[in-house]
Amino acid sequence: MELRALETLEDGDTEEDTAMALQRLVELTASRVTSVRSLRVQYRLIRKLGSGSYGRVLLAQPRQGEMPGKQSDDGSMDVAAVEDGGDEGLGGLTVEELQQGQETALALEDMMALSAQTLVRTEVDELYEEVRPLGQGRFGRVLLVTHRQKGTPLALKQLPKTSTSLRSFLYEFCVGLSLGTHSAIVAAYGIGIESAGSYSFLTEPVLHGDLITFIQPKVGLPQPATQRCAAQLASALEHIHSHGLVYRDLKPENVLVCDPDCHRVKLTDFGHTRPRGTLLRLTGPFPYTAPELCAPPPFPEGLPIQPALDAWALGVLIFCLLTGHFPWDQPLVEADPFFEDFIIWQASGQPQDRPQPWYGLSPVADALLWGLLDPQPRKRSPVSSIKGYLGQPWRQRGGEAEELAKELKEDG
């Protein structure tokens, strides 16, 4: 269970004014309009959702029998539909929740189509000078660069074409653009680059590395820093959920730190983010993965994802920040004794009988994490629930309550 160890952008030739951008979007959309006759052949009407002076909104399902919403490797974003016309859709999601996911998927498709037309086609080193690497992952790398003419520092994420499709690149690029207005999310700039061997996009530079490098094994972070990080990440996740999306990849490696004392952090990397209701197949047991994703899905097509997945991951991350280790290796009762002990303890309703990994936590932290780590998604507390626990001690170590109170007073 160990935890592993600005300035304004250039006025490039591809910048379009608002009128031109809207005109291009209209042209792209017009080419995708389907006739009513074709729609009736392809879809079965379920029920009417609403109507007005300019038309009506219908809920429909593909006639071929394949439910929309399967997630493919290239970033497909179709969202599950309601089958029975009731108030609940697949996986307990309401009609309104599914509609929001569908609207988000369609908006992203249009944004991707427009972005594909405005890619800058050039070699990166013609426009930007590399300063140093900022990060490296399985699918690409992040570099600190400066604009050759203006000297503006930027972060450039570079994804090789050998492992990244154009669609996957455009998807991550557009999700980042749509979410980057939040203070705890890395701001993405509207410049995508296609080179001979890679796709790249630009973001604000965050220079102090990721959160994993700040977590001391078997110790964690100081309590004030833990609460600051948790509050900012919960706010970022709320923002993502308000856009009809589920982040799906919360872990310390995807949290960038803005200063040495962890006063400000930012969420990054949106390659796994999907619209609410997207059907997700079995993903395998990992420490941050919710238990509903570690068992066979209730539907052959997969499990419709919802914000409760992020609430679970936030609970695991908070535990790691408080202790410096994972609560378990995999959230499966039959496979992990630490998870089994937690489930028994949680069901008992007796906080004082906590298992060994939870010894150092306070009753306040117990209550917070019991809510975020409820094994039943519909009973799980939302990420916003942490607001009611801030400013109270989350650990029982001597002197930490006084340290927390002092820091909160200094922060005003």
TrEMBL record:
Its EC number is 2.7.11.1. GO terms for molecular function: ATP binding; protein serine/threonine kinase activity. Keywords: ATP-binding, Kinase, Nucleotide-binding, Serine/threonine-protein kinase, Transferase. Residues 128-395 form the Protein kinase domain. ATP binds at K157. It comes from the Eukaryota. SMART domains: S_TKc. Pfam families: Pkinase. PANTHER family: PROTEIN KINASE DOMAIN-CONTAINING PROTEIN, SERINE/THREONINE-PROTEIN KINASE SBK1. Belongs to the protein kinase superfamily. This is Serine/threonine-protein kinase SBK2. It comes from Cricetulus griseus.
